[in-house]
Specification:
Order of helices and strands of chain A: HHHEEHHHHHHHHHHHHHHHHHHH
Order of helices and strands of chain B: HHH
Largest sheet of chain B: none
Shape of chain A: globular
Number of helices of chain B: 3
Largest interface: A-B, 45 and 45 residues
Oligomer: heterodimer
Radius of gyration of chain B: 17 Å
Radius of gyration of chain A: 22 Å
Structural class of chain B: mainly alpha
């Protein structure tokens, strides 16, 4: 049997970024094993690996490529997501500097290595053109995240959230796989275009297998991106995980989940999709409402942000429901803005944290007089999360809502707007605590120059995209055209 | 095919459901983990059945990947469970309830 046709030099060239990241992760692990370098150097090596991978990505160009006999499909869509993952990974590494020591764990080289592996997994997820590849990417991502979430081995909360994430994540994997198996059974292939053409040609083995398959795949995805009613793991996991990991967990993997979901439903099931719209409608409404209502009653800030990210996932489902160019480009724009806001917010919380217990609203009292710059930054991220102009959060929400209105989902948008109004309460609660309650605070956040610079960059992104979103919007529309 | 496809899929669905019920109703983390493995094996059975039916090896290759994943998941999962057990001396998920509002 001749394998060379499936394994050409252009195939290898297409996955250069993944190869670079894998090698970097191995180097990082070796450095850790040798124990001759300081932890800072290991982080630096990992960060330069991410930058190198980004350079390789730019070098590779953005033409459409089908690699490894249809396993991977590279286009502007996958490239857009690749850059997002690399960016989030890089920022997470920078923010993590010194965090693990502060939390009482020894610094380990496994930490940056696992983040690199997670980035590779996410890249494979959105580059995939085959259910097998989506599955492999998803699992590489999930396995890295299980360990990262439970990384503080001597911290009971971190242990517990690691266990919960592991059990529910593996449970979700079971559903995803069963969905993939039934889809394979119905259509005889796992390739996205093959599935689509089998459905279009009507050569499906049995409708029941197909619909069960799509349903199970949807449940699997819903678990991974935390859509209600499959979101129960997220508050516990977000609260217990090391805060820098939480910041990573609620941005890039969520983007990867939505990216893969978009690809599966737009490329593999375009014919079957209209019959699923009601389900997406219900998922969107449930997710945003449950997320918002639960966030109202939280006293722990990380838990509140966890529920807030559930509600944001609900808004994002609206974009998948709309599914035209406007909807998809709104989702992409939202993912960028959402990642910037959440990374910033979690970075500040990780700076403010001082011991094993995570922070409550009360602990933020009077922070503004003690550290005006950090409080100001956190306030800006909260305002943007709430969706106020002139921040990017407003433009992002506006894009999603107007795409939904254009398709006639008036009631959905009404519910979404009401939800946004409800969300003001809990986002502003933290600002009120920082600025209007004067008390002696125990929090002593300190920032390094690099971290402060990155935070300034994130704030700049939030404002620039809020005032002149045109440039990014052009890109997202281009990218959305590539998949629609 | 000697065994009809429907029988294979029904068996696989039954095994999968047993796994799901195990995850939902068992309280021991290790047992829950075993139930998840049962779900994955049900998937493998379905894949092999479909693969036979279509007379293609695609599904069987998928099975190899699923088996690899299951092994990796056990390695990571048991490590996490042991780390927790060292700190808490329990693997009963009803007692693992520190995280709440």
């Amino acid at each position: 049997m001749d394998l060379s046709q499936y394994f050409t030099s252009s195939d290898i060239a297409g996955i250069t970024p993944e190869i670079i990241l894998t090698l970097t992760a191995l180097v990082v692990l070796t450095l850790e094993m040798a124990r001759v370098f300081r932890p800072g150097i290991i982080l630096l090596v990992a960060a330069s690996g991410l930058v190198l991978a980004g350079t390789a990505l730019v070098q590779g160009g953005n033409d459409d490529k089908i690699l490894f006999g249809g396993m991977l499909y590279l286009n502007t869509f996958s490239m857009f997501f690749d850059f997002l993952y690399l960016f989030v990974g890089l920022l997470t590494l920078i923010f993590s500097q010194g965090y693990l020591e502060k939390m009482g764990s020894e610094t380990r080289g496994e930490y940056p290595a696992l983040i690199l592996f997670a980035v590779i997994g996410m890249m494979l997820m959105t580059r995939a053109n085959d259910l097998v590849m989506v599955f492999l990417g998803l699992e590489l991502l999930s396995l890295s995240l299980y360990v990262l979430v439970g990384f503080l081995r001597h911290n009971l909360l971190s242990n517990e959230s690691g266990l919960k994430y592991l059990l529910l994540g593996a449970f979700a994997t079971g559903f995803f796989l069963f969905g993939a198996a039934l889809t394979f059974g119905a259509t005889g292939t796992t390739n996205f275009s093959g599935i689509a053409s089998a459905i279009a040609a009507g050569t499906v083995l049995s409708e029941i297998y197909l619909y069960l398959g799509i349903g199970f795949l949807l449940i699997g995805f819903a678990f991974k991106v935390a859509l209600a009613p499959f979101h129960m793991w997220s508050p516990d996991v977000y609260q217990g995980a090391p805060t820098t990991v939480t910041g990573f967990l609620c941005t890039a993997p969520k983007a990867a989940g939505f990216g893969a979901m978009l690809k599966v439903f737009m490329i593999a099931f375009p014919e079957a999709f209209p019959e699923w719209q009601d389900i997406f409608w219900v998922l969107a409404v449930l997710t945003m409402t449950v997320g918002n209502i639960s966030a109202l009653v939280q006293s722990n800030v990380k838990r509140m942000l966890a529920f807030s990210s559930v509600s944001h996932a609900g808004y994002l489902v609206m974009g998948i429901l709309v599914k035209d160019i406007a909807g998809v480009s709104a989702v992409l724009f939202y993912l960028i803005v959402y990642s910037a806001m959440n990374l910033g917010a979690f970075a500040i919380i990780s700076l403010a944290e001082k011991d094993e217990q995570s922070l409550t609203f009360k602990q933020f009292r009077g922070l503004a007089s003690q550290n005006p710059l950090l409080s100001g930054a956190l306030a800006i991220f909260m305002v943007s999360l709430a969706g106020f102009p002139p921040t990017a959060g407003f433009i992002a929400k506006y894009g999603l809502f107007s795409a939904a209105i254009a398709k006639g989902y008036i009631w959905l948008v009404v519910i979404a707007v009401l939800n946004t109004v409800v969300s003001f309460y809990y986002y502003f609660r933290i600002i009120v605590n920082m600025y209007m309650r004067d008390e002696k605070v125990g929090l002593q956040p300190s920032t390094g120059l690099l971290t402060a610079g990155i935070l300034a960059l994130l704030i700049a992104i939030v404002f620039i995209l809020g005032i002149t979103p045109g440039y990014l919007l052009e890109i997202t529309v281009d990218v959305a055209t590539a998949v629609s | 095919m000697i065994v009809p496809l429907e029988h294979v899929i029904l068996l696989s669905l039954a095994l999968f459901s047993i796994g799901v019920f195990g995850v939902l109703f068992r309280r021991n983390a290790i047992t829950i983990f075993m139930s998840i493995e049962l779900m994955l094996n049900a998937v493998n059975l379905a894949l092999v059945g479909f693969s036979r039916y279509y007379d293609s090896v695609d599904g069987q290759v998928f099975v190899f990947l699923v088996m690899t994943l299951a092994a990796a998941e056990v390695a990571v999962g048991l490590a996490i469970i042991i780390a927790l057990y060292r700190n808490r001396q329990t693997v009963n998920i009803d007692e693992i309830n520190l995280l709440k509002n």
